[in-house]
Amino acid sequence: QVQLVESGGGLVQAGGSLRLSCAASVGLYSIALVGWYRQAPGEQRELVSYITSGGATVYPDSVKGRCTISRDNAKNTVNLQLDSLKPEDTAVYYCHLVSRGMPYWGKGTLVTVSS
What is the mean pLDDT of residues 85-93? Predict the structure, then answer.
């Protein structure tokens, strides 16, 4: 059973920054893809970013240029740096990975951006 624990969310003013962190109970060296998703109230969960074992990253247009994902396989952590935050970035942010064909999600961390 893989456990993912997110941290770093909070209340920030528009234009501010937050750094989210995800601690995994599994060795990330064995995980091909690790990512972050978010879900705003009344909305579907959407991809924020993912990173491969080789360090390749993907960002949708909604966060491109304002978001940086990184992984530390030695510490089994995945970080998400969020800059130039906007009120529409308000959501619960979830860490996600697939291990041995099974998807795992953390419980999420709330990011609230005030205007």
Answer: 97
